[in-house]
Amino acid sequence: MANSTLSRKSLVLLLGLVVLLALPPVALALDEAFFISLFSRILIYALAAVSLDLILGYAGMASLGHGAFLGVGAYVVGILAFHVSEDLAIPFLPGAWTGTTSAVIAWSAAIVMSALVALAIGALSLRTSGVYFIMITLAFAQMLYFFFVSLVTYGGDDGVNLEQRNSFPLLDLGDDTRFYYVCLAVLLGFIYLCQRLVNSRFGMVMRGCKQNETRMRALGFETYKYKLACFVIAGAGAGLAGALAANQSEFVSPGLMHWTRSGEVMVMVILGGMGTLFGPVFGAIALLLMEEILAAYTQHWMIILGPILILVVLFARRGIYGFLAGDGGRDG
Amino acid sequence: MDRSSPPVLRVSNLCKSFGALRASDGIDLDVRTGEIHALIGPNGAGKTTAINQLSGELSPDQGEILFNGQNVTALPVQKRAQLGLARSYQITSIFPAFTAVENVAMAVQSKQGQNFRFWAKARADRARIDPAMTVLRRMGLENVAGAIAGELAHGQQRQLELAMALATQPKMLLLDEPMAGMGPEDSRRMTEILLPLKDHLSILLVEHDMDVVFALADRITVLVLGKAIATGTPQAIRNSPAVQAAYLGELR
Fold first, then answer.
1. What residues does CATH 3.40.50.300 cover in chain B?
2. Residue A8 within any structural domain of the chain
3. Which domain holds residue A38?
4. ipTM for this model
5. Interface test with A, best of B95, B117, B148 (most A CBs within 10 A)
6. Do A200 and B121 touch (CB under 8 A)?
7. How far is Cα B244 from Cα B229, in angstroms, rounded to an integer?
8. How far apart are CA B115 and CA B112, in angstroms?
9. Mean pLDDT score of chain B, rounded to an integer?
10. Number of domains into which chain A is organized
11. For residue A1, what pLDDT band results from cuts at 50, 70 and 90?
12. How far apart are CA A264 and CA A280, in angstroms?
């Protein structure tokens, strides 16, 4: 807990933070600018993984459709930018709005839209549980995937290219280093938000639902309501990650919504440590780095990743973070 | 116990079938305010099925359940709990990863509401913890308040579950074999805890241990093959030829 000496957990976190803060200047000094964009991508996926862990690790809802919210967030940014570059009014909206490249507006819109989609998907999916919940969230995500594949206006299968990244007043996101630090700040902000959330009264209800939903109902909790609220918050977080992902690659495609993407995010959570807020960050770093390194040797890199994942699930159930941080990493 | 007041729970013609098995076959049952009413019967008589319908976990095929005069037959578990109908389970049902005091604090929180507070730290919130500690002390569990609930001894877990039910400040308790799997010492303790409770609330008790039933119950209803074959004082039940033939005789 709050010792005057550094606990193992604080040490691991502090070290991680220093590495992430120092990465861009070090990468530039080594003339390996590529690492900055790789780690921007990692931070963005970490954000998505943390949001998934809210529902998976804290509330016990195994959703295999989290990519849907990632995709919705990305498409909001992509579509708004598309209309700016084509000078075309957005259909179904009043006032002949031709979109925006403002980060504040586009990212907020991404959060709101993905929250609304999560509300709709969650309201239906949460009437089921267990394996049915996994399948129905998967089905909804695949429906969205095929919807965007067939949406020819926005490139269908090929997706939409962004002419440039969104802009903040006084802050040019086109610069990779600045964009990296924005991603890091967003991730840390989101983790802080979640930290407050999972330790609040609402968070205790989430944890109760994970451990024993029958008991929660018998105590008088309307579990459906709380689980839905949690699902929407997680969807909004993933939507923000999607908005960042669109900016990072300056490209949006339905691939973000494909179920394999949802699976990848789930693997990050499990690999890093479910039910902890920092675990998914470690998971995202591990998975994407492994992918990057192994893919240089063979395109069948999943053959190596698969057994590693099985070993983690079998022998290190608290994931990489639980392994590194010791008992302090526990947060159930 | 007040004989003149209306019953806190009135069950009429409760029917529930699973395929050809009639688990509840037209059960009529009244639980009076401030009484401990025991529901006994041989294995497979349909006691747990009956309790599950009263708590709302199963919905009956037929019949009506009135709680404090309100028809709750169609209400789900959580709504009935909010009205003051709390329960314990035959198989211990707690939050195993929480500490004992957190388990009870969840019950306190349920009663208090404010579950959409997203920011303030719940574990430091005295409004949650203090009432939970009070209930734990009443149960003699204050020494294990900080222990992980899943690691407590079986008897303590049973007491913890009762503490959770009590912390919701219910008007009535449905207890499904609260002494299940307990040794004689824990069982005696539990009896001592339950007996004074009827000053504040009514209890419907399913229990196999006849010593416990006769020590606690004001009235007893005997369930055999889904039918309530007799209701009466412990003395009347002990002397009823029908009950002896159907049930008590088996034990001797």
1. 1-84+171-252
2. no
3. 33-258
4. 0.90
5. B95
6. yes
7. 11
8. 8
9. 90
10. 1
11. very low
12. 11
Q: Is A214 in contact with B93 (Cβ distance < 8 A)?
A: yes
Find how far residue A44's CA is from the centre of its chain: 6
Is the Cα torsion angle B97, B103, B107, B113 positive or negative in sign? Answer: negative
Q: Give the amino acid at A200.
A: S
Rg (chain A; Cα; Å): 20
Give the containing element (helix H, strand E) for A322: helix A319-325
Q: Which two tokens stand for residue A146?
A: 């095929």
Q: DSSP secondary structure string, A195-221?
A: HHHHTSHHHHHHHHHHHHHHHHHHTT-
- B146 vs B1, higher pLDDT: B146
Which residue type sits at A236?
Answer: A
CB contact under 8 A, B125 and A226: no
Residue of B58, B106, B111, B168 to mutate for A, most A C-beta atoms under 10 A: B106
- Average pLDDT (A91-102) is 85
pLDDT at A56 over 80: yes
Confidence of residue A328 (pLDDT cuts 50, 70, 90): low
For A202, the closest of B97, B117, B164 (CB atoms) is: B117
Between CA B234 and CA B232 the distance in angstroms is: 6
Q: Does residue A315 form part of some domain?
A: no
CA angle A42-A44-A48, nearest 5°? Answer: 110
DSSP code of residue A129: -
Q: Do B109 and A203 touch (CB under 8 A)?
A: no
Q: Does B75 touch chain A (CB under 8 A)?
A: no
* Domain B1-84+171-252: homologous superfamily in CATH: P-loop containing nucleotide triphosphate hydrolases (3.40.50.300)
User: Which of B57, B93, B121 lies nearest to residue A199, judging by beta carbons?
Assistant: B121
3-class secondary-structure state, position B120: coil
Q: Could you tell me if residue A1 is inside a domain?
A: no
In this complex, is the C-beta atom of B73 within 8 Å of any C-beta atom belonging to chain A? Answer: no
The A residues from 222 to 261 touching B (CB cutoff 8 Å) are: 222-223, 226, 229
User: Nearest residue on chain A to B170, judged by CA atoms?
Assistant: A219
Smallest CA-to-CA distance from A207 within A186, A184, A230, A225 is with A230
A331 domain residue, yes or no:
no
Alpha helices, H only, chain B? 47-55, 77-83, 100-112, 126-138, 154-167, 184-194, 210-216, 234-239, 241-243, 249-251
**Contact between residue B182 and residue B190 where contact means Cβ atoms under 8 Å apart:** yes
